[in-house]
Amino acid sequence: MLKIENLHASVEDKEILRGINLEVKPGEVHAIMGPNGSGKSTLSSVIAGNEDFEITKGSIKFLGEDIDALAPEERAHKGIFLSFQYPVEIPGVSVTNFMKTAINESRRAQGLEDMPANEMLRKIREKSELLEIDRKFLSRSLNQGFSGGEKKRNEIFQMAMLEPKLAILDETDSGLDIDALRIVSNGVNRLKSKDNAVVVITHYQRLLEYIVPDFVHVLLNGRIVKSGGKELALELEEKGYDWIKQEVAV
Questions:
Q1: Which of 38, 77, 78, 214 is the most buried (most CB within 10 A)?
Q2: Domain residues for 232?
Q3: ∠ at Cα 26 (21, 29), nearest 5°?
Q4: 8 phi and psi, to 5 degrees?
């Protein structure tokens, strides 16, 4: 589904990614961990097409197609979704209207007609119940006045509505209490299928107790330096990153 080869990327002439190699297949959950400043959020931004970052070498292929030159909205229409670490507020645009617009823009890009209103309402009701979202929440301006947990839950609601092929969750667990973490994780787990894939970017092993990864990758200084199963996350929780830094140095 996603194939990244020797990816180098920089921002304002500062190189951040220094040769990323990663392959994600349908049905898989990959966790990317690493200390602050290692390039985790940069990687998610580059996959999603953030134009602040420049790819200087390597390639990103999604469903066999090179997407390096595609705009963020074109990548979204093809099925790439990024849950932001810090979701922005959009005053005056309700959650419901935002979702209607996003879904119908994506449908038009695929040559489909707008989703019928009754089908849209049914889908909104179904997905909001899945994430235990109060219906009043849907008429509020997008993220305006939302708590940290509400913002993150809203991001997963958007994911549920858009049904992407590849979902990238950038530190979705930051700022969440245990109840919100459980609800968000439950939503992600119920949306997983053999036809989609999830990349979870996190500092903490606790999220991975709820969203269990097939693979864990450690990002350090812009490169993936170690990969393993879910056990690797437990080892990182117990020992930190210093042992990996020493291993890489050797």
A1: 38
A2: 2-249
A3: 70
A4: -115, 135
